[in-house]
Amino acid sequence: MRPDRLLKHAAGIAVVWLGSQLAHRVRFGISDAIPSDGPVIIVANHLTTTEPLAVARLVLGHRRFPHFLAMREVFSWPVIGWLARGTGQIPVARGTASAAEALAGASEQLAAGRVVALYPEGRLTDAPDQMPGPGRTGAARLALLHPAVPVIPVGTWGPKQGRAHRWHRHTACLCVGEPVDLSAYAGRTDERAAQEATAVIMAAIRAQVVRAQGEYRRQRRLAALQAH
């Protein structure tokens, strides 16, 4: 790795570590489902604008570095944009036909043996119960293009969106599931396969969200006992 890229990666790790500690109390366990090397696709639910820091912290905790699909606007922000470009984050022009171009960037990262993280919903979860809703097909299309790459579902619970919660340091519990089985769609990249694979991926994420909810309740009980 070039010295300038190494510097940006080190800065990225420092920002994620500090940012995740400031924004959330991040709780997760190390999972054998995330391999120590080679390409990986991480798919997760999306609760808040700050919870990607928790997902990034989880990936770093597995001694890997995440490459997120992120809004193109982020790349024009001072400092953050510099880090995003320098650490190989992937811009997405959401709501446009060119959003599909992000898959090419994600494929390049996978070909280099890296971790790509994305949110299949393509937006913040807006259901009243905060369970992830229908997904868009981007994650499934990426997975179908790379059938040998494991697709790892991550469920997050705890962070809350909105002004009332802006200055609250919420506990963020994350659970990692086993690779999503998409073998039924081997060799297929058609629209129907993408739609069906998306449903399978979203079901796997929801299962991990349920696990994360249970862990969150456990953490709350533990904190209450320690307070007394």
Present the secondary structure layout.
Elements: H1 3-23, E1 24-27, E2 40-44, H2 52-61, E3 66-71, H3 80-86, E4 90-92, H4 101-111, E5 115-118, H5 138-145, E6 151-157, E7 170-176, H6 191-227
Parallel strand pairs: 1-7, 2-5, 2-6, 3-4, 3-5
Antiparallel strand pairs: 6-7
Give me the number of helical elements: 6
Instruction: Briefly note the CATH topology name.
Output: Glycerol-3-phosphate (1)-acyltransferase
The fraction of residues in strands falls at 15-25%
Unreliable parts: none
Summing up helix and strand content along with how strands pair, one would put the structural category as: alpha/beta
Give the overall shape, derived from the CA principal axes: globular
Helix share, percent = 40-55%
Number of strands: 7
Q: Would you give an account of this structure?
A:
The chain is an alpha/beta fold. The protein has a single domain, classed as Glycerol-3-phosphate (1)-acyltransferase. The chain is 41% helix and 16% strand. The protein is built from six helices and seven strands; from the N terminus they run H-E-E-H-E-H-E-H-E-H-E-E-H. A seven-stranded mixed β-sheet has the order 1-7-6-2-5-3-4, sandwiched between helices. Helix 5 (138-145) packs across helix 6. The relative contact order is 0.17. One of its GO terms (cellular component) is plasma membrane. This is 1-acyl-sn-glycerol-3-phosphate acyltransferase. Pfam families: Acyltransferase. GO terms for molecular function: 1-acylglycerol-3-phosphate O-acyltransferase activity.
